[in-house]
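pasting for the record
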Amino acid sequence: MAQSDGTAGKAGDRGRALRATGQRRKAPTRGRRVLTITLCALVSAVLLGGAGLGYLYFKFNGNLKGVDINAALGQDRPKNVDNGSMDILVMGSDSRSGTNASYGKDEGGARSDTAMVVHVYKGHQKASVVSIPRDTLVTRPTCTKDGRTVPGQHRAMFNTAFEVGGPACAVKTVESMSGIRMDHFVEVDFTGFKKLIDALGGVDITTTKAINDKYSHLHLPPGKHTLNGEDALGLVRTRHGVPGGDGSDLGRIQLQQTFVKALMKQVRSVGVLSNPAKLYDIADTATKAVTTDTDLNSVTALTGLAKELGGISSDGIDMVTLPVAYDPVNPDRVLPLATQGRKVWDALRHDQDIPKAAIKGSAGDKGGTANYVK
């Protein structure tokens, strides 16, 4: 894996200068991120209240799509540690096909625009979330897709794993990076994300300063807002229009992490369980929006997961970005900080809190956007 123990230094300054003058890759192909960390929680929370729906479970089961990760990867995986914890890879795809064409040119395949490793601690009362920047340079392992071998690659962008090898290759790449076996996989695309937010009735946020981003088409004055699906997608894509930010994808991850907690609060407070029509709409939308591993590919499995994770509140989630530095060869890319990254993954592997020292000095902590939305 391409790694660095240094700081961003001149490469970071050069990267920020390039971003300020618009010389990074075109916004239409960079910016369309889908925030999916709460997808599993959203689906499960809704279905928990659906015990009275009876026969509709069959319909919702028919909505779900599953990928057999275990069969695809076989035994070439990290050891499955049975200590009561759980690790879930949650991803957003950026396919421009079909109704997603308005977000940019369809280049023939989806990449993962958002990737988060969710570690649920033993007892299932708290969780840590590690965001992996899409432009992280990694050693992508050899994968298999549709019966053909996809060769591994050194210094490959992380998000290409999903593009060339599908969900199984994305899981294998994360497991190779972290040494942690993923118990589950959840994916959603742009359209699914927007429809979920709209079905929920929007998500409440407060901006402390104005956000004006012509690339994401988001314009919000300071104050309280209820974001619909389109505006929510604009928020989690925003990197240019936030005062004090560095215009980077790393800063945008901070906005995504803030939005996650707002969405979780909304799910808990929206009161859909007392409104059968709204419950049906959200459950139908959510089960159509997600692709999961086959172990989660049923209403029963999602409901079971909800019961296990129901005690986790937004305050019980610690969110960090994988420690990275700008690549001195190409400031449009970032490199994992080897020593600090090991501290992050080792903590999760041993079901421990991520130490603050693990993310100190990381470029991922310098986006400057975390305090602009709450």
